Amino acid sequence: MPPDTADILETTGDAAPFGRSIARMFAVLFRPAMKKWRFRIGLAFGLTVIAKGFSVIAPVFMGNGINQLTAGGSISSEAATGAGLSFVAFFTLFAIARLLSNGLPAIRDAFFTSVTQDAQRTISVEAFAHAQNLDLQFHLTRRSGVLNRVIERGAQAMEYLLRFLAFNIGPTLVELVLASIVLAVLYGVQFSLAAIATVGIYALFTIVVTEWRNQQRRALNKTDTQLRGIALDTLANFETVKSFAAEDREAGRYDEATRDYNRQYVKVMQSLAVLNGGQEVIMTGGLLVVAVMAGFGAVNGSMQVGDVTAIILMLVNIYRPLNILGWAWREIKQGTVDIEKLFNLMDMKSAVSDAPDAPAFTPKGGEIRFENVRFTHQGRSSGLNDVSFCVPGGSFVGVVGPSGAGKSTILKLLFRFYDPAAGRILVDGQDVKSVTQASLRTALGLVPQEVVLFNDTLRFNLAYAKPGASDDEIMQAAGRAQLGNFIASLPDGLDTRVGERGLKLSGGEKQRVGVARAILSDPPILILDEATSSLDSTTEEDVQAALREAAKGRTTLAVAHRLSTIASADLILVLEDGGIIERGNHAELIARDGLYASLWRLQTGSDDDGEDTAGVVPMESLAPRVAE
């Protein structure tokens, strides 16, 4: 991942041209997933234009009706009857036009909501899925709260930007054009020019002030992101907070972040008052100018009273959407800040991706081979350096070494969470870069050092390795993982909820859930990443029994901190500073009296040749030994 990709989610500056983001947003409506809504989309646009046409013509009907009432001053009874019929007809037309101008948009909104909601769902699911498929380095450097807010804000922006642009901004421009034409043709071009000038001044003022406010909005978003990030981090790591008696310290951090947010929020609201006040002055001034012009026309006899009324009503109709236009423009500018971030997230490329024509991985014997592999983590100076080894199919190989030697890096490269800078990694003779990641990882069963569970039921967590597994299959796997009796003792059984990150379960119970997952998925290769290092001796023995069951008939690669767990391995690889410095079985490494022997003595307190295994947790070979 390039160095600045994490900043895309943290910063709040412009990330893409305004027009490009709007175009991409509307393009969502034309994706195959939205095909079923095409008729509704067309119908909604048609109703919007028709409604604006009625909105423009309604004041003309009202003006003509008033002109009929005032024509000729005092009139006879017969003429009054004829005039009465005429103004009633015009007033009726006015009422019908006005009803349709307001009613059609309500009908449109009723059936178009499904379209905007589905578009919002489409973009949010796509962004969520894309984030899930980004490489491990991205997820190590991002904050969960920030990523969630980017998707949430972007999806919400998608909904209201579509609605505003399609049904407020666009139709308002159509109404302005129609009204200007009607004013020029029926009453005089000066009224059309006055209306256009007012709208132009209003739009210019709105854009300038909104751009100023947009900077404040971005600053507000930044403080909001920081505030939520601190809250989520603190609540998620409450054990660490309590362990260090840091409750007051974290409350202070939260208070400072809240103060920053409040200060910025006040600035945003003050600038909103400036914008609203200026818009009201411009609209009122424009209406006054046109009303005075029409009044002089009536006094001079070039216009009738009804014409003055029609012009004023028409301008009121024009200026009324301007209130929405100002609000919509603010929302659009604010929304583009959010949707640009969403599209930036969706534009991010994973550093690890499948080749376009990559086939699925085909398991064979379970052989793993590293050939001259070099890799360095981003931001570090050390990593793996020219590492080569082979794990024969069906064998049990342990990987040991001091912290930072590269043990877990080997596993991450095997899972293809990263790609090596040089060398190859082969599984059953297939380069892991040449096959699909999903098929490769399906063939690898992982039991990590800390099994983190979803805040759901035991059934959900156990079946995560095999969606759709029956309760019988789940319980068989749980039984083999030494977890069956525990589940049977629970009042709710498999329906028991495990809590946030599985905190309702003990460490050993969570580890056995991890082992049960591996058994249920039935992978040809089992990966153990320090699966018992955080357990006490009694619990470790239970988990080791579960691991022995899980490892039957599989290739097993185990990264271990406790050497006792891999003492019976067919081959032990000893890493230091990113390279393999020793390899062999337990007896051979003890006899060599190198780093492995030193670590063994430190852990067991044994000073002899390794025959003394006091303090070692008994463990059978996890898999059949390789034929000598």
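the 2nd protein, sequnce then structure:
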Amino acid sequence: MAEPQPTDYQALFEPLPLGSKTAPSRFVFAAHQTNFATHHRFERRHAAYYGARAAGGVGLIVLEGSVIHPSDWPYEYVIRGYDAQVVDGYRLVADAVHRQGGLALAHLTHSGMQGSSHYSQLPLWAPSPVPEVSSREMPQEMEAADIEAVVEGFAQSARYAMDGDLDGVEINAGQNSLIRQFLSPLTNQRGDDHGGDLDNRLRFGRAVIGAVREAVGREAVVGLRLAGDEHAPWAGLKPEDAADIARLLAGDGLIDFISVTSGSIYSSHQTRPGLYAQPGFAVPLAGLIKQAVTVPVFAQGSIVDPAMAAAILADGQADAVEMTRALIADPALPQKVRNGAAESMRPCTLCNQLCVVAQVQNPRLSCVNNPAAGHEWLPEFAPPTRAPMRHRVMVVGAGPAGLEAARVAAERGHDVTVYERERCTGGAVRLAASAPQRERLALTADWLETQVRYLQVPIRTGVEVTPEMVQAEAPDAVIVAVGGQVDRSFAAAANGGPQRVDARQVLRGDVTATPGKAIVLDGIGDQIAMGVAEWLSDRGWQVEVVSADMFVGQRLTATMELTPWNQRASAKGIALRPQIEVDRVTGRTVVGVDVFDRKPVEIGEVDLVVTADHERPDEGLYFALKEAGRRVFRAGDCVAPRSMSQAILEGYRAGREV
């Protein structure tokens, strides 16, 4: 793919005809779960969220999915598109988007077997009794009356969307959809006129599209979100199958665009992958379908760089580009690109930490790099105003928390100086970015440092700040963001035993032992131990990851990284040893017990032991300054070591409060 020059961005701002309507640009904000709903309706939080993206220059916004029938309740805060009370919420969002000149569509969906029966207390509906992969629940095979009810549900929900002043609808035949389940031989094993050959498997989707078009008329936009590859070649839809389906459905003349996604019941991680996937990985699927149809085609698949988006259009692989996660991170992305300031765009790291919210805790969507995402309606996240009095502010620590605090405090007009004891900025995030597959994390530190320097804030590296230094500088306020510290009591090597190090030391390259057998003791279950294991494996170590958890890497499920991690670990020969509680290292032997039967477990001939465990807050400076009567704040891991998102949020708050 050719790297476009800045002038090539113009294609992203060409009007996009969609049936009888026209989107003002080719940036698309696609449907995604937010958990913002109140009483299963859109409300002002949604309006502020979508309105901010429309104000930033997004041409087409597809709202969070609206389920079309009471048989589908896939998550607690789902939007009920079949309920007439949804109309007022649609109007609220439509007004917010239309005032900024954008188009807004409802996303009509039925999850079928990929839903949940926990909330509805009803059986899941599906084309055939094929068990759902994650829950292992067996769905009920739909009868003719059920099929008719769902088709009518789509039609009635489409009418409500039009009553709500939206510009049309998008019909979901993508990853989590009943229509895809009818289209795919993977899940459709029926013997009637809705199963078997492709014409029969198309029957349900065609009935839905026809009913929706009749319900909304020719003036409304009707789009189709289509799975371009199920990544299940033994039985599922392959790219060439999806192209045939797209050609046949577009040939009916009832749809105005096709949005191409990927993934299926066995490959949900392929729909919205994290850091492990190459940006633009699914673009070829859109290109293949574009060759088969004449309606506009939308590309997606970790597209977060406007240069890549422009190149996709220039190469003719798509007519518009979904940049959903990038637009969560920076709602003004299109506007910045148009104004020649693409370099100021707040980056999306593809980390999936706060924007994937399909979890049992029901978190509301937000963004690691943009604390205001999902909270645009709250005064706390309005653009910072100038402080009534200018203060001299010392920020101690140039990790994400400290840099964000400095950025916001400087925007408020304070005289800020940042001090960092290391030779570079970024803190633990910069270190984490040195692990395989996690390089994009460094973009956060790069962007924050660039913004701070743009605001002419001095950053003094290699400086260890002490209480005496603060007393000599006499600032009006201090923000302490020095991070966490590792408990290295376990890392003292016994005579003749293996070298013992922590995760930070590994990623710094402080391992002096000759590559041999390495044991990674994982006490957290997230990306830290996994990154260390891969780092060592790539350098010739024979690696085993030992965890007391039920399975290794259990916290990776939240960011859609568990399956790819296991695939990479298997390919690299990394052994996984769950359900082992390690007690000690004796000589070259790691000794522990099985967490269930408490029987001894020994792992011998070990050359390196790595601890990947929770850190402790580095809070000495904070309490010393507090006891001295200084006006002092703290943020990030020196409060409690957690994630990058919490560090940036607390830095933001400290910068506003100082």
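Residues 144-163 form the longest helix (20 residues). The first strand starts at residue 16 and ends at 18.
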